[in-house]
Amino acid sequence: MNLRIVRLSYWLIRLRWFAILGIFIAYYVAKHFLLITIEELPVYSIIAFLILLNVLSFSFLKYLQKSQIRKSLKNVKRIINFQISTDLIVLTVLLHFSGGVENPFIIYYIFHMIIGSIMLSTKESFLQTSFALMLLGSMTFLEYSGIIQHFPLQGFITSNMYNNLTYLACTGFIFISTSYFVVYITRTIIKQSEKHEAAYLQANAKLKQRDKVKNEYVMRVTHDIKGHITAIQSCISVLNEKLTGPLNPQQEDFVSRAHKRIQILNNFISDLLSITNKRLLLQSEKKYFSLKNSLEEVIKMTENSAQEKNISIIKNIDTSADNIYGEPSSIEEVLSNLIQNAIKYSPAGKLVLINVKDQHENVLIEVLDNGVGIPEYEIPYIFNEFYRASNVKANIKDGTGLGLAISKHIVEDHGGKIWVESIENFGTTFYLLLKKEM
Amino acid sequence: MNKNKILIIDDDVDLLASTKLFLESKKYEVETAINSKIGLGILKTFHPDLIILDIMMDTNLEGFNFLNELKSDDNFKETPIIMSTGMAKSIGVNMRAAVEDIESLPKTKFIDKSGDWEELLEAIKELL
Fold first, then answer.
1. pLDDT grade, residue A69 (50/70/90)?
2. Closest Cα to residue A177, out of A166, A169, A165?
3. Do residues A139 and A100 make contact, with C-beta atoms less than 8 angstroms apart?
4. Radius of gyration (Cα) for chain B, nearest Å?
5. How many CA atoms lie within 13 A of B55 on its CB side?
6. What is the CATH number of domain B5-50+60-127?
7. Is B35 on the interface with A (CB under 8 A)?
């Protein structure tokens, strides 16, 4: 609602630039093509005045937007009222110098009434309409009674109408009824649309609130589950490590199975907690940090799993792409997800290549592997929560389907982009575009 | 060579029992405490070389409160501490930033309570 008013105020200012241009064109056409005589000085004065009004309104609006929003909303409404009233006065003056009530442009009062009805309250709209009708009526009366001079549109209107009482009465009646009717219809339509907008906003807010409650619930439950799982894992580890003495081969086999499964479950819960948290946006302490250091840290952490599969990690880091703005531990989480995936889905003995390129305002990180790849039709889904590509589900059981979803959340929270190119059975490249500056 | 002494403070008895067994198998001398109050008591007699401290116990900040008491005691303020939490990485709360205000934490490490002993063992080796 607030934003709508501000948007409309700018729209009004834009409209006025067209109006100024319109006045100029109308004047030019009337004078040079229709050969109608119109007073020159008032027209130019009015154009100059309108330009001034528009520039002032624009700067004032900008100023209000910068200052406190709540306070300024009333002021924005005031500006709109002031602008519409001023426009009505300007139109009246312009009409007065160009034929008064005889000028067909009197229909333009209706425009102002519609614009007013869109932007103002019902009461204000009717007040502005009455003000417009009062201006037109006063001008007509003053010209009719000879108190002010009538400027006829010579060459256009051949007989005088401004002092024809029957004409004035008929035109007046039609004009007044049309005006109020137009305002009534416009207000009805606007109120309907405002009602819809409010209902939509309310529904949206409710949904967001519910989502938040749901996420908090998931987080609490997951955290409680994690406590138990961690304890179970620890207890099974006692058996698995044979700290209490040897097990027979069958016992050992089953304990080892249980131990593996509990590890997978624990990773899954950690990821679930992480993504729920990302949705609740609890964190984000962004600062400038060294991408190179972070990357080296992550590579060091993944070294073990790389060595196990005899995979070499090769990195090319553009030295000018080092300092970036963001939350280091989150970015490290993304890098770790991508590098660990590359290792996990590569056959033994292959290479994982990491390139960091400077791209002016951004840094592009590429993580390339010669792994199993992703089937083409599944590429659009791999950043979805809980999604795992069909060709890895069967072979590699410890994926949670959350790593890439978390990464995407993080990257988007940093105003960056993440995407993937992949050829099945050939390899995958993940691209990570991060902003250098705030 | 004297065995290194480790005090574990955690409100999960199962985790305490199993971790104690594991660390003992790695030739550490281990004592456990179920809350920070008992932990403070054991501290005075046991004089650990390292403390593994759960952050969220009865209250969300029990671990931090214990840490504050510890660091105000001249006898223990140099004792290395491993802060373990179920939430550090997963919740993304920057634990280090949360305590850096308290300064004077020369030897502190944060790990995610995951039941992964390797990570714990590495952290212990790093600090001792």
1. low
2. A169
3. yes
4. 13
5. 23
6. 3.40.50.2300
7. no
- Domain-embedded: residue A232: no
Alpha carbon distance B45, B76 (integer Å): 12
| pLDDT, mean of residues A64-87 | 77
The ipTM, to two decimals, is 0.79
Q: Where are the alpha helices (DSSP H) in B47-83?
A: 62-71
* Confidence (pLDDT) at A432: 92
Of residues A158 and A355, more confidence is placed in A355
Tokens of A429: 């490249």
The structure tokens listed for B61 are 């900040």
Chain B contact present for A127, CB below 8 A: no
For the whole model, what pTM was predicted?
A: 0.56
* Among A163, A193, A214, residue at a domain's last position: A163
Nearest in space to B61 (alpha carbons), one of B93, B89, B92, B38: B93
Instruction: Work out how many domains chain A is built from and give that number.
Output: 2
CB A238 within 8 A of CB A245: no
The pLDDT value recorded for residue B98 is 53
Q: Which residues does chain B have within 8 Å of residue A244's beta carbon, measured at their own beta carbons?
A: 21
What value does the mean pLDDT take over residues A30-59? 87
CATH number of the domain to which A305 belongs: 3.30.565.10
Partners of B17 on chain A (C-beta within 8 Å) are: 235
Look at residue A262 and tell me if it is in a domain: no
Whose CA is closest to A1, among A183, A249, A193?
A193
Closest CA–CA distance from residue B75 to any residue of chain A (Å): 32
On average, the pLDDT of chain A sits at 86
Residue A74 confidence (pLDDT): 76
Domain membership flag for residue A261: no
- A305 in contact with chain B, both atoms CB, cutoff 8 A: no
- Judged against a pLDDT cut of 70, whether residue A397 lies above it is answered with no
Q: Considering only CA atoms, which of A356, A352, A397 is closest in space to residue A371?
A: A352
pLDDT value of residue A35:
81
Whether residue A132 lies inside any domain: the answer is yes
Task: Tell me the three state secondary structure of residue A366.
Answer: strand
Q: Is A283 near chain B, with CB under 8 Å?
A: yes
**Token pair of A409, please?**
């959340």
Q: Per DSSP, what are the bridge partners of residue A357?
A: A364
Domain that holds residue A323: 287-435
How far apart CA B63 and CA A82 sit, in angstroms, is 62
Q: What is the pLDDT of residues A368-387, one digit of tens each?
A: 998 888 888 888 888 887 77
Residue at which a domain ends, from A129, A163, A197:
A163
Rg (CA), chain A: 36
Tens-place pLDDT, residues B47-92:
999 999 887 776 666 777 788 788 788 888 888 888 887 665 444 4
For chain B, the structural domain boundaries read 5-50+60-127
pLDDT (0 to 100) of residue B92: 46
CA gap A74, A124 in Å, rounded: 13
